[in-house]
Amino acid sequence: MKNVSLGVNVLLSVAVIVLYVLYFSGQEKAASTRSEAAPAGTEAKIVYLNMDSLLTNYIQSKELNEAYLKKMEANRTELNYKVKTWTQAGEEFQRKVDNNGFLTRERANQEYADLMLQKEKLEKLEQEMRETALREQMELNQKLYNIIVTFLSEYNKEKGYNLILSTTLGGNVFYAEPGFDITHEVVSQLNARYIKK
Predict the structure, then answer these.
(1) Same domain, yes or no, for 8 and 72?
(2) Are residues 105 and 155 in the same domain?
(3) What integer is the mean pLDDT of 43-57?
(4) How far apart are CA 186 and CA 197, in angstroms?
(5) Which of 14, 46, 132, 154 satisfies CB 3.0 to 4.6 Å to 163 for a cystine?
(6) pTM, to two decimals
(7) Within this chain, do residues 54 and 33 fall inside the same structural domain, yes or no?
(8) Residue 116 above 90 pLDDT?
(9) Domain total in the chain
(10) 62 CB-near residues (< 8 Å, 6+ apart)
(11) Which DSSP state fits 181?
(12) Domain check: are 35 and 63 in the same one?
């Protein structure tokens, strides 16, 4: 029993020594990696943009969103008109059924089948409109993203920031000292550039 206890103690002692050596050699590697990543004495220049504010105040963003909304309203109006027409046809069908307006049962069944086919087409149209709206919204967002990223890479050549963050209301930046938010300056320059075009 004493031999087993002695063996376990020796094994634990060796494990502690190995961990000790690994821990302190890892610290030296981490310190050297940190010193290679950022030279001592240099400070990172970090700023951020409030994307909500940028997209609200950027003229091209407002125009693209307005055009998108007008198109969605036109689609919704078209769909509502078609649904209203279909509803009226359904009400007319029901009046005919209630007043024995069909000469044969086959004629009533055919008209009912036509109404159901129209309903399926309307549901399919609504689904297509929804998918198109989602795709166009994603394309619009991608277009604005590309414009902003392209602008920021040119803008940063002069400014020399190490990191430009993006935040939104309730996003990652809860507080920053004045001077870190470059949203107003970026919006002004984006608008000036867009107006020139």
Answers:
(1) no
(2) yes
(3) 90
(4) 17
(5) 46
(6) 0.67
(7) no
(8) yes
(9) 2
(10) 56
(11) B
(12) no
Residue where the block lists tokens 């087993």: 4
**How many Cβ atoms sit within 10 Å of the Cβ of residue 100?**
8
Helix axis angle, 59-98 to 105-159, nearest 10°: 170
- Let me know whether 26 and 123 are in one domain: no
Distance (Å, rounded) from C-alpha 34 to C-alpha 79? 60
CA distance 187 to 197: 15
**89 and 145 part of one domain:** yes
Task: Concatenate the DSSP letters of all residues of 101-144 into one string.
Answer: --SSHHHHHHHHHHHHHHHHHHHHHHHHHHHHHHHHHHHHHHHH
Contact 64, 140 (CB under 8 A): yes
Considering the domain architecture, whether residues 10 and 70 belong to the same structural domain is answered as: no
Amino acid making up residue 68 = Y
Beta bridge pairs of residue 47: 164
Q: What is the pLDDT of residues 148-175, one digit of tens each?
A: 999 999 999 999 999 999 988 878 888 8
Q: What is the DSSP letter of 47?
A: E
Note down the domain range covering 30: 1-40
